[in-house]
Amino acid sequence: MEARAHIVAVLAMRGDPPQLLKTDLSTAGLNLSPWSNVSRPGKVDPATTLVLTDKLSPDGTLNWSPPPGAWQVFEFKQYAANTSVLGSAGLGPQLVLDHFDKAAFALHLARVGDPMIGALGATKPAMRATFIDSLELMQDLPWTQRFLEEFKSRRGYDLTPYLAFIIQPGWMQAWNEHYSLPYYQTITNDEMADRAREDYRQTVSDLIIDNFVKPFVEWNHRHGLLAKFQAHGGPMDLIRGYGLVDIPETENLGNDYDALGIRFARSAADMYGRTLVSAESLAFKDHPFDRTPAWLRARIDLFFAAGVNAESLHGYPYTSKTATWPGWYPFSPSAFTTGFGTMFSQTNPTWAAMPVLAEYMARTNAVMRRGSPIVPVALFFGEVGNYKGIEDQGAGAEAPEKLLIASGYDYDRINPDGLEHSRVIRRQLVTSGGHAYSALIFPRTTALRADTAEKLASFAQAGLPVFFVETIPHRDVGLLDAEHRDSRVRQSVADVLRNTGRLVPEDKLGEALDSERIPANLRFTASPADVDFVERKVHNRLVYFLYNCSDEPRNASFVAPVLGGVQRWNALDGTIEPKSARTVAHGTEIELNLRTHESALLVVDPATKPHVFAAADEVGVQVLEQAGWQLDTNGHSNGGMPFARKFENVTLADYAEIPQLSTFSGVGIYSRDFAASDRCRKSGCRAVLDLGIVHDMATVTLNGHRLPPLIAAPWQRDITPWLKSTGNRIEIAVANLPQNAVHDSTKPGFNNLPLLPAGLLGPVTIRYEQGHHQSLRMSYFKAAREIRR
């Protein structure tokens, strides 16, 4: 390793040092970067730059006497990245390769990829694609052996005198991306340092795309395979990285489960003509044992609301028989972290939820792959890399994105490469992948490449509506020939404004789009805060998926821009119900209230008419007593020790109130006998069982009939076909999470896992209704066949 290290350059500049913030930038207890956040950049004079590399002796002595004044001296040294592949298979150090060197990747393909293809033999057709997870490269500043030569070839000037300006904490950190001021700016012209940083980052992006992403795609295609890739976690043009592969894949580990950030993968798919958008689902940081099936479904919905239509479960451990429960788990808690991933395997008491979740994902995936996405707006993104806050200097407000969604406009992010390969047809921006946008928006953009600005001017001349939010671009992003390139940008932007371009305040963006008659996906009729959505058109039908991202209930009522009957498709149980809707001036008004993290899949069919359905009449409620239940438990307790016991005359309550069950994880079967109420005597009466509060899933057996599991609120099930007047026997099998039994006060990491609510809390009631529900239900699969036609 040391033999591969060498000095790149030694520089000196007259000026002052930066002021640093004393902030904790560690991840999982480890300081992964030497850089501290900056409260005030150092100010240096680039006119005084001295390159002193040739004055450095082999023993490290710098043979230079500084002139009078304050000087900053920089030594830049190149190192081989001494990092191993995380979670690798096989033996040896398995060091991370140089992703910016095509020869390095070629060696990897020869050592790993080609032998794999040969070993597959006749089974090769069973493999669809190879996959690269998020790179999460750990260099402090991405570099490669010939970086300076590559930079000069691509950017047209020598980076050496400007090396001090490329240091900016946060941007280069793979696991702690955040905004910080740069270490150094100039005393006269901050834009010069900004331009050098942009040129450096663009070169990093070009190198990893040309020498790693493209060869990866080419190798797969040469072998008849598809390429699947998570572009996030790498220092590159994120949208282009996603778009170059056949199956762009996102995940939810970064940015605090930010649905708007997840949208980048769907954006690339639309722009580059990819039909599948994948996601690494159900992986969580610091939550290895406490994710309920309801929470898992909510995270699945987060992806659907971001345009994903090919969700994949994050890998879970195939556990062989072991002496201790719950078995081996690769991301268990430790002294450094409370764990990672989700231990959702056969040893998890809530494993019975897996078929329900899998069917839910499969049904929704199937619907969301039909037809084509309706995304009317393209929102410019010109950054290299991405994290929440990269565009607004750490605010993370995502104001334009949220305003568009609240105004009823879905959007895709579009990059300079996407604009370069697009054209305007009938006043719409049509990308190389064939997607058409009715408007192009630039959110608080001050700099554009000159060729991008000139392309934009041609778009505006062809009639494409263009909106600049708050600011007008006034310069080029790069440093070379800056004055001339800046004038090209200013001229092009002026041409845009003379044609279809408009400068709009950020809070008036939705109104501006509406005034230009840009069609919205929908119009919310109440406060749409935290409600995300996507829309697809399948033949003449409109399919909407809406999701409440909030921890509070939300009114998500809206007007669809067509007149038609509405159905709500329930992918959890495969049923479809008609949804009340009414005709209004501009389409169909749909009332929709969403519980915390609830979703709705709605289909609007212009071949039918809206109809308002009367709510079912409640004719009675029967409450089963809280006390008097039998409880039969089987699972683990006290640090994973087996536990099985029967309890008589139990009162429904949290396990914490039953001393023997305070650390129990497993399945508890509650049972009792009861007679049905006599309040429902008319034909067509419906009996709905409501379990009240459940931790964390429930399976009801009534009179020997086992009903499908319930994995989320409302904990209700129609029991009409199996309910008898007298002699009813009900069993409610409640499974809780493994965390209570995994908790161990003597083990680092495990002692930080809190005890969770568990068991059946009730009240258990039966609601008797007289209404239309049952007769108007239809088969989900029959409707799925119809929508395919």
Task: Please specify the SSE layout and strand pairing.
Elements lengths: L5 E10 L3 E2 L17 E3 L1 E10 L19 E8 L23 H19 L8 E4 L14 H9 L28 E3 L3 H33 L3 E4 L8 H7 L2 E5 L7 H14 L5 E4 L11 H12 L5 E4 L40 H15 L3 E2 L3 E4 L18 H8 L4 E4 L1 H5 L2 E3 L2 E3 L5 E2 L1 E5 L6 H12 L4 E4 L12 H17 L2 E4 L4 H7 L7 E2 L6 E8 L2 E8 L5 E2 L2 E3 L4 E6 L4 E5 L1 E4 L2 E4 L2 E2 L4 E7 L11 E8 L4 E9 L3 E10 L14 E10 L10 E6 L2 E3 L1 E6 L2 E2 L9 E3 L9 E8 L3 H4 L16 E4 L1 E7 L7 E2 H9 L1
Parallel strand pairs: 4-7, 6-8, 8-9, 9-10, 10-11, 13-14, 13-18, 18-19, 19-20
Antiparallel strand pairs: 1-4, 1-5, 2-3, 12-22, 15-16, 16-17, 21-25, 22-23, 23-31, 24-30, 25-29, 26-27, 26-31, 27-44, 28-29, 32-43, 33-34, 33-35, 35-41, 36-40, 36-43, 37-42, 38-39, 38-41
Helix pairs in contact: 1-3, 2-3, 4-5, 6-7, 10-11
In summary, what is this structure?
Helix content is 22%, strand content 28%. The chain has 14 helices and 44 strands.
How would you describe this protein?
β16 and β17 form a beta hairpin. The longest helix is centred in the first third of the chain and has 33 residues. The strands form eleven sheets. The protein has a seven-stranded antiparallel beta sheet with strand order 12-22-23-31-26-27-44, with helices on one face. Strands 34-33-35-41-38-39 form a six-stranded antiparallel beta sheet. The chain has a five-stranded parallel beta sheet with strand order 6-8-9-10-11. It has 14 helices and 44 strands. The chain has 789 residues and is α+β, with helices and mostly antiparallel strands.
What's the gyration radius in Å? 30 Å
Unreliable stretches: 774-778
Discrete helix count: 14
The portion of residues assigned to helices is 10-25%
Largest sheet: 7 strands, antiparallel
Secondary structure tally: strands: 44
Assembly category: single chain
Q: How much of the residues is beta strand, in percent?
A: 25-35%
End-to-end Cα distance, whole Å, is 61 Å
Strand order of the largest sheet: 12-22-23-31-26-27-44
Cα shape: globular
Mean pLDDT: 92
